[in-house]
Amino acid sequence: MIKWITKLFSSTQKEENTEDNMKPEVHEHQKNNIKSVSKKYLIVGLGNIGAEYVNTRHNIGFKVLDFLARKESLSFETVKLGSLAEYKFKGRTFFLLKPNTYMNLSGKAVKYWMDKENIPLENIFVITDDLNLPFGTIRIRKKGSDGGHNGLKNINQILNTQEYTRFRFGISDEFKKGQQVDYVLGDWDEDEKAKMPERLEVASEIIKSFGTAGLENTMTTFNGK
Description:
43% of the residues lie in helices and 19% in strands. It has eight helices and seven strands; from the N terminus they run H-H-E-H-E-E-E-H-E-E-H-E-H-H-H. A hairpin with a 2-residue loop joins strand 2 and strand 3.
């Protein structure tokens, strides 16, 4: 009888060991991937501080964030390296950042708030003007060069990567030779001002889509519109 019980116990133990061996092994790096996906996003509008720059083409990043803030009754607070508003939408938290470092030092503010709020690189979204696109044209890319833009150039340097999402807003290149700086730092013309509200509405929807529908869906839905 004792031998029979011992044999039965041994058989049961073997079955348990076999079941354990059939379970997939979870390695340490896989455990890290199981962690919940971050629902925090850093939305950076590029521009220059100061009343003289408020309505300039180069400040479209600020303008987009200001529009969304007004629409959602948000308030910007003066914080380290910029102005910040917190927007909660569909379980996500969007930090709307307007750096106060001036355009060519934008990366410093991006890096600081990215680290402070523990926001992953794939959840960074930078809004900037683009001379190579017709007015109001939208181009969203998940990586790319700075294209000669001083703000993007500094962000690339500080983050040591070009692999973050940028939303380029076309301002066209309707200027004469040698007048690029005056054009970029100039005010919108009357036709552009008339079309701006609709473009800003689309831009605000792009921000929300980035956080809720994801980058690929957002690019498919809005690029070229």
